[in-house]
Amino acid sequence: MSSPYPSQPFADWDGTPAAARALQQTLAAQVRLVDDFPPLRLIAGVDVGFEEQGQITRAAVVLLDAQTLEVVAQSLTRIPTSMPYIPGLLSFRELPAVLQALQALPAVPDLIFSDGHGIAHPRRLGIAAHLGVVTGLPTIGVAKKILTGEHEELGEARGAQVPLRDRKTGEVLGTVLRSKERVRPLIVSPGNRVSLASAPRLVMQYVTRYRLPEPTRLADRLASRRDEKAAAARLRR
DNA sequence: GCGACAG
DNA sequence: ATCTTGTCGC
């Protein structure tokens, strides 16, 4: 199969926030909330970090065996940051680097877990949904905080979940999921080609002993240089 | 107008 | 996101 990755994630974008929001509405209409992925063989986790006071965007992708969770490959990309962080426009800041990192992988994943939201977004196009639409691949958003939406109290048990809904319409945007006991819940929402019901189930399928599912947890470590920083701090002491 | 606001 | 040590609790 040919590469599903476009060279750049925003066709005809003039760079303005207003145009970005308009483009999001167009792309959001292309999101498909139905389970449409093959038996999972390879899954990927993507996340982005920054260096040099934010001037360098660093994207990390980890490819895992869906059965053993063994790391099959990793990819890291560093490019100049092109835009500031604006709530609601995260994908425009981070996707360029993410796409480059994905292209560098030796194989195309069957499902991608992305840090950030899928459709649980003001215009239903969080970074996971945006990534899913431009690549055509199945994606799920795994965020640590709510961007939009509200929910009822959540149970304390591992696996407890409650729907995240639009405050005005009641539309279900995702799931507030307690991936582990005594931890703040994760906000899980479909990106593309995954149903609202399956998203949290798939996340729990890859949660081991940490709050975050393995794909996202490992990508997060790479993107934020967890190991390097820990080593540096240790040496200084 | 005011408050909220993924990473 | 990032800047940063130790510390309380499972």
UniProtKB/TrEMBL annotation:
<comment type="function">
    <text>DNA repair enzyme involved in the repair of deaminated bases. Selectively cleaves double-stranded DNA at the second phosphodiester bond 3' to a deoxyinosine leaving behind the intact lesion on the nicked DNA.</text>
</comment>
<feature type="binding site">
    <location>
        <position position="47"/>
    </location>
    <ligand>
        <name>Mg(2+)</name>
    </ligand>
</feature>
<dbReference type="GO" id="GO:0000287">
    <property type="term" value="F:magnesium ion binding"/>
</dbReference>
<keyword id="KW-0255">Endonuclease</keyword>
<dbReference type="GO" id="GO:0016891">
    <property type="term" value="F:RNA endonuclease activity producing 5'-phosphomonoesters, hydrolytic mechanism"/>
</dbReference>
<keyword id="KW-0479">Metal-binding</keyword>
<keyword id="KW-0540">Nuclease</keyword>
<dbReference type="GO" id="GO:0005737">
    <property type="term" value="C:cytoplasm"/>
</dbReference>
<dbReference type="GO" id="GO:0006281">
    <property type="term" value="P:DNA repair"/>
</dbReference>
<keyword id="KW-0963">Cytoplasm</keyword>
<feature type="binding site">
    <location>
        <position position="115"/>
    </location>
    <ligand>
        <name>Mg(2+)</name>
    </ligand>
</feature>
<protein>
    <recommendedName>
        <fullName>Endonuclease V</fullName>
        <ecNumber>3.1.21.7</ecNumber>
    </recommendedName>
</protein>
<comment type="similarity">
    <text>Belongs to the endonuclease V family.</text>
</comment>
<keyword id="KW-0227">DNA damage</keyword>
<keyword id="KW-0460">Magnesium</keyword>
<dbReference type="GO" id="GO:0043737">
    <property type="term" value="F:deoxyribonuclease V activity"/>
</dbReference>
<dbReference type="InterPro" id="IPR007581">
    <property type="entry name" value="Endonuclease-V"/>
</dbReference>
<feature type="site" description="Interaction with target DNA">
    <location>
        <position position="85"/>
    </location>
</feature>
<dbReference type="Pfam" id="PF04493">
    <property type="entry name" value="Endonuclease_5"/>
</dbReference>
<dbReference type="GO" id="GO:0003727">
    <property type="term" value="F:single-stranded RNA binding"/>
</dbReference>
<keyword id="KW-0378">Hydrolase</keyword>
<keyword id="KW-0234">DNA repair</keyword>
